[in-house]
Amino acid sequence: MSLTRRTMLGTAAATGATLPLIGRARAAETIKIGVLNDMSGPYRDTGGPTSLAMVKLAAAEFAAKGFTVEVISGDHQNKPDVGVSIARQWYDRDGVDMIIGVPTSSVALAVGTVSREKNKAYINIGAGTTELTGKQCSPTLIQWDYDTYMLARSTGGATVKSGGTSWYFISADYAFGQQLQKDTTRFVNEAGGKVLGSIAYPFPGTTDFSSFLLQAQASGAKVLGLCNAGDDTVNCIKQAKEFGVQMQLAGMLMLINSVHALGLKVAQGLLLTESFYWDMNDRTRAFTKRALTVSDGVYPNMIHAGNYSGTLHFLKAVTAMGVANAKKSGTAIIEQMKKMPTDDDALGHGKIREDGRGMFNAYLFEVKKPSESKGPWDYYTLKATTPPDQAFRSLKEGACSFVKT
User: Which pTM was predicted?
Assistant: First the structure.
């Protein structure tokens, strides 16, 4: 049959009439995930594009059970209002079923409120505040990876035990930095140490830490606790070395990407805590090998690994309860995730506690000397392992409103 102009118009009209039905059918069979993080600022390298790549990797590896997975991304710019605006648009207009990521605690808390209001699933990976599973806990939320309590207990406690008994803090002035300083102060005091002073700096936007570092050195403290992350931690350590600051440096949230940026000559001897290291065992090495095929050569840290792990577990839960039920209620899909133990090549075996706290091992590492490293990204020596029930605060102490203890 030849296509005349009239035939083409008729065909177009008929096709147009069926598109809404097709669109609804496809939407019903599709799970849509929104990756919301810092794609352009100080946390870009510790999360950013590599976290997005890990979510896509998990979606690609997942053995789909009668549904498709779509992944979109957004940049919250470390601003709560921007994060909230994107989250509302995704939930209300774009049909997003689950938001994952959201580093920066102030943004994370704001997005948590929206997700609860909309009854949508939200897996936080990268924000450290314990408020996510405490006073601002939500039945639609899981905090997957680390939090400030875990970091303070592992890195802070170990530093005091090794002789770092007096501390001074330089902290990012928002929820994460404030809570990390508070939690670390607790463990320093409990271990018999003391805090001699602290200073908070504006976040984001600070790049010159020289005056803060000189104040810290003048305090006479043995340890400089850096309650920040990403580029801010890297800049603090570099500038401390440049100014000849004679203090033990404790990067309270130090990730392997920051070690790589500093180089072993500068970073050697630092203590840090992660829940993942690429060279831990055969499974982590296998995961990393796959990750490197999509990460532009960036080795994954615990935030990247958490995005992979959280996505995979979410999709397993969708399969268990069915797409329609998973799309209907964020509370229901999160409850399903809590019922199922986690298991993947990145973080191994774990579980999700009633309050939404992901329960995984905390590993204390020491950064190697250049002479100890056997190859690219061979940066860590394992010093201690803290099991989940000790690494994270108790349910009772968290006081999550919907959990009975």
Answer: 0.91
